[in-house]
Amino acid sequence: MNSSSEKNIVLAQELIGYGAATVGESGGQNMAARIKPAWVGAQLAAPAYPVQCTPSDNLAIHVGVTRAPAGSVLVVDVGTEREFGYWGEVLTTAAKKAGLAGLVIDACVRDAAALESHGFPVFSTGLALPGASKTKIGTVGAPARAGGVLVRAGDWLVADVDGVSVIAANSLDAVVEASRERTKKEKKMFSRLQAGETTVEILELDGLVIKVEGS
User: Fold this and answer.
1) How far is Cα 192 from Cα 184, in angstroms, rounded to an integer?
2) What is the residue extent of each domain of the chain?
């Protein structure tokens, strides 16, 4: 394992610890709420490798699995035809063998139980039975839009039960540092709450006017 891979593993663990919500509040771009874990407990943090499919076709995904660098997550745009099973156990098996970190797709997948048994993190818009064709041209490695966010190769994704947040490659250091500071701040807030303070006091909301029934 080279030093770059080791650094990515350490960074991935740190970002997973912060979570998608904190990353999103610290400069990340949040994907649309329709993209959720395909199985309970799925989580990932990894650099992106974008793929764009022709609607109802997953040929570009098959090619993407062979081209994406080990340790990366495929980020797939299929256009508006989302209700096909663009991904399943066959592609999961191939992706794991290639050393990929996971999949984020703005469309449906299938074989959810198998994805969970493989422990392969998949984030999708849902599940669908119809299979996709494998005959139409797409693109791999070029920027692709998923969940309303334009993702470029080398951007980082953080995904968990709350959703998916994207960190632009040129903002990675700043977002990681902001996530660290936000986490420290929240830990202090939790301590103050446990000591009996209220969110109104901590967030200095006292001056805001609100009508309280019965007062």
Assistant:
1) 13
2) 3-170
Alpha helix stretches (DSSP H) within the chain: 3-18, 20-25, 59-67, 89-97, 112-118, 172-194, 199-202
Token pair, residue 129, equals 């039975």
Handedness of CA 36, 40, 45, 49 (dihedral sign): negative
Closest residue by Cα to residue 59 from 37, 46, 76, 83: 76
**pLDDT at 211 > cutoff 70:** no
Cβ count near 129 (within 10 Å): 9
- pTM (predicted TM-score): 0.92
Query: Amino acid identity of 17?
Result: G
Q: Are 116 and 88 in contact (CB under 8 A)?
A: no
Alpha carbon distances (Å) from 209 to 42, 197, 206, 212: 42, 20, 8, 10
Q: What is the mean pLDDT of residues 149-154?
A: 98
Token pair, residue 179, equals: 């996530």
Which homologous superfamily does the CATH classification assign to the domain defined by 3-170? Ribonuclease E inhibitor RraA/RraA-like (3.50.30.40)
Q: Supply 80's token pair.
A: 């508006």
pLDDT at 160 over 70: yes
Average pLDDT, the chain: 94
Q: What is the dihedral of CA 87, 91, 93, 97, to 10 degrees?
A: -130
C-alpha distances out from residue 33 to 77, 90, 123, Å = 15, 27, 11
Sign of CA dihedral 119, 154, 61, 22: positive
